[in-house]
Fold:
Amino acid sequence: MFTIRLAHADDKSALNALIKKSGIGLAAGFYTEQQAEAITREVFGVDSALVEDGTYFAIEAQGRIVACGGWSRRATDFGGDQAKSGTDRPLDPATEPARIRAFFVDPDMARRGLGSMLLDHCTGAAARAGFKALELVSTMPGEPLYLRYGFRPLERIELPLSGGVVVALTRMRKEIG
Structure:
């Protein structure tokens, strides 16, 4: 029913629409409406470097993108093209963890294993590239998935956004090698 494939540059508008829908739709119970709108508007979006690197994926169901996510061999922690956090310098697989980046699921398709499918795919690809660990910066809605998948919290982050809005995030890590 679900197929995973590389995301392409011409998917960008569909991916950004999914990201917006996911950012707002899956935040209930974790963030206020104001927090969800602010982080979705100011931070979330496609990071074109991931698409260009061939490390960003789309999951389709009946020809429609229903989830997306990727991994990175670059140091950027999070953020779409408009709001990257960190630098895009290459990571050293011998000494640094790969990054898990920008996982989003259509709220209508939540709880069907799509996040796990993406994590399995990305973990395998990062391991094949020589990485021994993964790190990510998780939103509160994503944290339960990452905890179930064996990631451990490293630090809590308070991300200041416009209008005095602050959003809680968590840096997490998992050894894979």
The beta strands are 2-6, 56-61, 64-72, 98-105, 133-139, 152-160, 166-175.
